[in-house]
Amino acid sequence: MVDLFGGNPTTPNASVLDSDDTVQLLDTTLRDGEQAPGISLSPEEKAGIARALDRANVQYIEAGSACTGQGERETIRRVTDLGLDATITSFARGVQRDVDLALDCDVDGVTIVVPASDKHVEGKVGTTREEVVETTGDLVAYAKDHGLWVEVIGEDGSRADLEFLVDIAEAALDAGADRSCYADTVGHASPETTYEYVSALAELGPVSTHTHDDLGLAMTNVYASLAAGADVVHGTVNGIGERAGNVALEEVAIALSHCYDVETAKLDELYGLAQKVAHATGVPLPPNKAVVGENAFTHESGIHTDGTLKDDAMYEPYPPETVGRERRLVLGKHAGRAGVAAALDEHDVDVTDDELAAVVERVKAVGDRGKRVTDADLLAIAEDVQGRERDRRVELLDLTAASGGGTPTASVRLRVNDEERVASGTGSGPVDAAVKAVRSALGPDADAQLDSYHVDAITGGTDAVVTVEVEMSHGDRSVTVATSDSDITRASVEAMVEALDRLLVAVDGKPDDTAESPPRADD
């Protein structure tokens, strides 16, 4: 048996932490997270993410690296000007100029990073261990003299000689540093190594941990660090970052709360925070991502759906509301009678036992073809089984979109009840312009919220067919529609119109004919 966390192999630790322990979070999404390939956050996006982190009660926010350039410094100032409760810090290399630049940004603190492994001391910086120790003490004293909170990281600490890493931390703390930080910079360490190194640093004073996920051990190494005495965890929202990324902040927060009753953040803010970062960075959330992925609280299997309908906790470790989520029951090849019946009931569709059996059979047949059964699919199946005519309120008759050479524009012609309406719109792209045109044509009746928009290419080549899936809601009702076409704009508009139509029918009200309408097609 592996002697994990330094416990006796025959009597492993019953608990890494208890509810009396205090653990805080340092978010480095705006610095380390942005260093992931292809990510560049605007000042507005960084400010928005910082506000969301503060709402989630994250204690430390690393707003960037002041040494990067003038644009980065202006962005850091944008964050420090927000007046947040969190301690706002800047990353600083082991040179006084970096500390001065951070001071110019009016930050509360700095994370001073100095080389720790011989690869970095000799190969990267071209200095000596003795010079690193001396410089560390001098820089910490300088930063503290200027009123800064100071943390010192020995870069590549997991590959450093432990005695030298201790020397760095000792010099930092003796000079007044608030804490040292163990950094597994390249995601190299095992939990046992992490425990050994953090234990040695914790004997000197407060210690943080900074883990990467190159071996898939970022979360495990966080627990090893906490067991060894660390009390601050560095992480990023959604685990974004260099290479395989950092430990995911939301996973640390919910796991500590659920497993050890240790509270680090306002948990019901986590999902909104994750969505904000995914949107700003352009890095979508994987469906199977813990805590914030689409599938985390989504059930399809007939056995699981039936159990969940009987007891919410049957197949979930904690309620989705804990992290700002909602439970979803979806239909596919694994659907059972209970799940289909519940989905139909959500849309106020009454069926007999025989009709339910027929709908279940059709749903499974669609799922067997590798297709997810959306709400629109289910309602169409039920209508066909029951021989009902579709009570359609909104229908797309014509769509024209253009995006070459200027502002993207689009025009649509819709049939709304017995009336034709035309409208146009402009946007950041043809899809955005077309969606705005649809909303303009429908007027007040298009006040449904677009909750999600997802595009998948289902064939290859320049003539690829794409599937657009949208989820829209109005009040307490929601509907999901998927549409495929070789034209992404048409697929998007058709999906949105179908969703709006289903929602308007569901609320049992025709579009408001008394409202001022856009011009008729024959005007």
TrEMBL record:
MF annotations from Gene Ontology? 2-isopropylmalate synthase activity
The answer to whether the entry has keyword 4Fe-4S is no
Q: Does the keyword Cytoplasm apply?
A: no
Q: Which SMART domains match?
A: LeuA_dimer
Under InterPro entries, the record lists:
2-isopropylmalate_synth_dimer (IPR013709), AIPM/Hcit_synth_CS (IPR002034), Aldolase_TIM (IPR013785), LeuA/HCS_post-cat (IPR054691), LeuA_allosteric_dom_sf (IPR036230), PYR_CT (IPR000891)
Q: Which GO terms describe its biological process?
A: L-leucine biosynthetic process
The EC class name is transferase
Q: What is its EC number?
A: 2.3.3.13
Name the Pfam families for this protein: HCS_D2 (PF22617), HMGL-like (PF00682), LeuA_dimer (PF08502)
The protein's UniProt keywords, in alphabetical order, are: Acyltransferase, Amino-acid biosynthesis, Branched-chain amino acid biosynthesis, Transferase
Q: Where are the transmembrane segments?
A: none
| UniProt record similarity statement | Belongs to the alpha-IPM synthase/homocitrate synthase family.
Please give the NCBIfam families that the UniProt record associates with this protein. Answer: PRK00915.1-2
What is the protein's given name?
2-isopropylmalate synthase
Record organism: Halogeometricum borinquense
